[in-house]
């Protein structure tokens, strides 16, 4: 299964639109957004990906009440609050905003994949059997916008920049 991991959109409408276009073109099956989407007006853009999306808040949550209201209009977007702990097929996945929490979770050996964000810097590390993926940022403030496309079965990943 091909999935996309992205984070830190920070209200960048054009960059999120481009990331969604790439995901659709690359036939990604699910998106994991690791936080800092921020404003409710970003939800319809995220929702243009008409398949399953998992979303957490991050440290810049914006107006959480309005964000939850807007997300409720999109049944394909699963809002998890601060963190998500999921089983997708046979894979245990944790999604958190902060890398330090991701590394701690990876060291438990309980997860196959841990997705995070916050630093706006691309980084992939392996601990025990867990692959920790920080996809960089959709915003493009610290460099070119980036996210990751990952094949859950093979653990093959690609950094996508635009």
From TrEMBL:
<dbReference type="InterPro" id="IPR029052">
    <property type="entry name" value="Metallo-depent_PP-like"/>
</dbReference>
<comment type="similarity">
    <text>Belongs to the metallophosphoesterase superfamily. YfcE family.</text>
</comment>
<dbReference type="InterPro" id="IPR041802">
    <property type="entry name" value="MPP_YfcE"/>
</dbReference>
<dbReference type="InterPro" id="IPR000979">
    <property type="entry name" value="Phosphodiesterase_MJ0936/Vps29"/>
</dbReference>
<keyword id="KW-0479">Metal-binding</keyword>
<protein>
    <recommendedName>
        <fullName>Phosphoesterase</fullName>
        <ecNumber>3.1.4.-</ecNumber>
    </recommendedName>
</protein>
<dbReference type="Pfam" id="PF12850">
    <property type="entry name" value="Metallophos_2"/>
</dbReference>
<dbReference type="InterPro" id="IPR053193">
    <property type="entry name" value="MetalloPDE_YfcE-like"/>
</dbReference>
<dbReference type="InterPro" id="IPR024654">
    <property type="entry name" value="Calcineurin-like_PHP_lpxH"/>
</dbReference>
<dbReference type="GO" id="GO:0016787">
    <property type="term" value="F:hydrolase activity"/>
</dbReference>
<dbReference type="GO" id="GO:0046872">
    <property type="term" value="F:metal ion binding"/>
</dbReference>
<feature type="domain" description="Calcineurin-like phosphoesterase">
    <location>
        <begin position="1"/>
        <end position="155"/>
    </location>
</feature>
């Amino acid at each position: 299964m091909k999935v996309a991991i992205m984070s830190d959109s920070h209200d960048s409408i054009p960059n999120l639109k481009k990331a969604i276009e790439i995901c659709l073109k690359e036939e990604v099956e699910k998106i994991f957004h690791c936080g800092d989407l921020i404003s409710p007006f970003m939800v319809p853009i995220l929702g243009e990906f008409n398949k399953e999306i998992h979303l957490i808040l991050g440290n810049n949550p914006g107006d959480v009440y309005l964000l939850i209201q807007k997300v409720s209009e999109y049944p394909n977007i699963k809002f998890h609050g601060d963190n998500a702990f999921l089983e997708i097929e046979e894979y245990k996945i944790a999604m958190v905003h902060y890398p330090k929490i991701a590394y701690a979770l990876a060291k438990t050996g309980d997860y196959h994949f841990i997705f995070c964000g916050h630093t706006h810097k691309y980084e992939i590390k392996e601990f025990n059997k867990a692959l920790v993926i920080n996809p960089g940022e959709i915003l493009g403030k610290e460099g070119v916008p980036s996210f990751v496309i990952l094949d859950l079965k093979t653990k093959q990943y690609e950094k996508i920049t635009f």
